[in-house]
Amino acid sequence: MRIAVDVMGTDYGPKEIVKGAVDAVKAYGCEVVLVGDEEVIKELLVTYHADKNQKITICNASQVITMDEHPAIAVRRKKDASIVVASNLLRKGECDALVSPGSTGAAVTSALFCVGRLPGVDKPCIATTIPSLKGATILLDSGAVVDAKPEHMALNAIMGSVYAEKLFSKKEPSVGLLNIGTEETKGNAQSLALYPLLKELKQINFIGNVEGNDITKGTVDVIVCDAFTGNVALKFGEGLVSTIFTLMKDSIMQGGILAKLGALLIKPALEKMKKHMDVQEYGGALLLGVKAPFMICHGNSKAKSITSAIRMMITLVEQDVVGTISEKIAEVELGNEEIEA
Amino acid sequence: MRIAVDVMGTDYGPKEIVKGAVDAVKAYGCEVVLVGDEEVIKELLVTYHADKNQKITICNASQVITMDEHPAIAVRRKKDASIVVASNLLRKGECDALVSPGSTGAAVTSALFCVGRLPGVDKPCIATTIPSLKGATILLDSGAVVDAKPEHMALNAIMGSVYAEKLFSKKEPSVGLLNIGTEETKGNAQSLALYPLLKELKQINFIGNVEGNDITKGTVDVIVCDAFTGNVALKFGEGLVSTIFTLMKDSIMQGGILAKLGALLIKPALEKMKKHMDVQEYGGALLLGVKAPFMICHGNSKAKSITSAIRMMITLVEQDVVGTISEKIAEVELGNEEIEA
């Protein structure tokens, strides 16, 4: 198994990405192809004592797409950008999966242009794994398509269900529609049109509407929503967690010697809790609807996220998540044709 | 100043509501009218040693609208429901403001039917105050109108700005549009149509797009969004806070005697932090766009929330929040007519 990793264009530079990839090779025995500036990568491999590791190869790419560039224009113009080169490796089958911590827009565009969509999929979507009380919940679409059509969102539900089945090793994972009330009659025009479509789908275990507080409650495995709502919710969640821990730290700092001693004593328990809630454990978000496993990591990913992302990709390739999604979508497409015929 | 309080139809029953109202009368010296089952209220006033308090009067209402009733049907049929009776007191000017912790749907419907909208306002909205790193942020619409028209949302921005000015005693509070990126070109059809309208409004200090993580960062005073997004975000936030504290407690419980001792030592600091983040400090959400101050509290409000809500209502009546909103909206309406002419 070979995983391509785009090393360039992240917040902390190539060193965290290379370190994470080296750690993954050592831990899981997979092969990785590091895509980016060859000289920089070579030096980093020496630093991490992995320059003689035969499971690690370098694929040079002379250009980088930065976070502030227009994705579609940059992907078209910069033929030798690391994300474009990496996507082409994936297209040609020279690697089995791709991990990209650079610009999300550039990654999605590059996936569409170079890797291509699965037959029957008009609009790919991004599936993010969010830690919950009971494990994790997959939220999709968390960033690809705003004002999504209900029929596209129904396909997202199928893709998310397959992803959950493979990732959580769970038969018939539950799928909910993110809404403002549990009753079938609640919602905006989009969710009201989507509900009956989801109810009819034989490919998913639809449990009806769920609400915002279900996201971390662990009451449902997969939550379907529009990318606008998904993106706002995710960023709100990130901000809220950060606000809570900042306020907690400030209160403890102002609380004198006893509060500080207390903080020291609960530190192991807090670390355990933080590990459970740590999004880095889940590596990144999967781009669903393209022809090969394509993972988008946060631009501020540390080595640990990259290692987790590679671990997840190994599972998803072994479980043939893309093949299974493709079969399920063909079933629906066939169903539609039968109805039309 | 007289504040009407609907005592019926909440999760914890009339006792928390009556206690909160009694505490407010004692703390702030206002008058309250308790609307609901006279016998029940009389007994509770004896319990809280307030049966001889001349600032507290009872207005009997023989019916209750429960959380699971259809709001529009229930408000029309139950003429003697506590929320309907209370709304009529407000309409007739027999009280200056209303606090309602019952069904949100029934409260909004009753406000529309009995109190009525301000001239120029088609759709009222709900403004919720969310604790932030630097104080609080007002999010609106948090629950009234989904698939809102951009022109209605522009009016919401003006109403939210007046509310923030009065509540935070701040001149020209900043107003942001909740979106999935800060650039003007980002967003869904609704936010793309709304952005230029907000940019043109002289009545607000519009700072552009903000993202989900700005909600608790304290970077902006007022955030405008569709009720669908606002409702999902609010419920997600509630769930996330609850999940974090549950996991923290579980980790500490499993962490042995030292972790428990630590938890005891940081308790005062945590309590201080929780007080800052406590939504009960803000009482409830204001229904903006109706002819009198109308506050909707959570169905699970405890006495403290009701006391806070009454305190907020005193400020808002003194500051004439409804009158100021009415003037600002008249300015915009006038502006529109000039353009049309």
What is the overall shape of chain A?
globular
Largest sheet of chain A: 11 strands, mixed
Terminal Cα span of chain A: 42 Å
Oligomer status: homodimer
How much beta of chain A, percentage-wise?
15-25%
Q: Which chains share the greatest interface?
A: A-B, 62 and 61 residues
Which regions of chain A have little confidence, pLDDT < 50, spanning 5+ residues?
A: none
Strand order of the biggest β-sheet of chain A: 3-2-1-4-11-10-5-6-9-7-8
Put simply, the count of helices of chain A is: 11
Tell me the total number of β-strands of chain A. Answer: 11
How would you summarize this macromolecular structure in one to three sentences?
The structure is a homodimer of 341-residue chains. The first copy, chain A, is α/β, with parallel strands linked by helices. In chain A, 50% of the residues lie in helices and 16% in strands.
Written account of the structure:
- Two copies of one chain form a homodimer.
- In chain A, helix 1 (14-28) packs across helix 2, helix 3 packs across helix 5 and helix 6 packs across helix 7 (189-200).
- An eleven-stranded mixed beta sheet of chain A has the order 3-2-1-4-11-10-5-6-9-7-8, sandwiched between helices.
- Chain A is α/β, with parallel strands linked by helices and 341 residues long.
- The model of chain A has no long low-confidence stretch (mean pLDDT 92).
- Chain A is globular, with a radius of gyration of 21 Å.
- In chain A, 50% of the residues lie in helices and 16% in strands.
- The longest helix of chain A has 27 residues, at 227-253.
- In chain A, helix 1 (14-28) links the parallel strand 1 and strand 2 (31-36).
- The first copy, chain A, has helices at 14-28, 38-47, 71-77, 82-91, 104-115, 150-168, 189-200, 227-253, 256-277, 303-318, 321-340, and strands at 2-6, 31-36, 56-60, 97-100, 125-132, 135-140, 174-178, 205-210, 222-224, 285-288, 294-296.
- Chain A has eleven helices and eleven strands.
- Chain A starts with a strand and ends with a helix.
- Chains A and B meet through helix 8 and helix 9 of A and helix 8 and helix 9 of B.
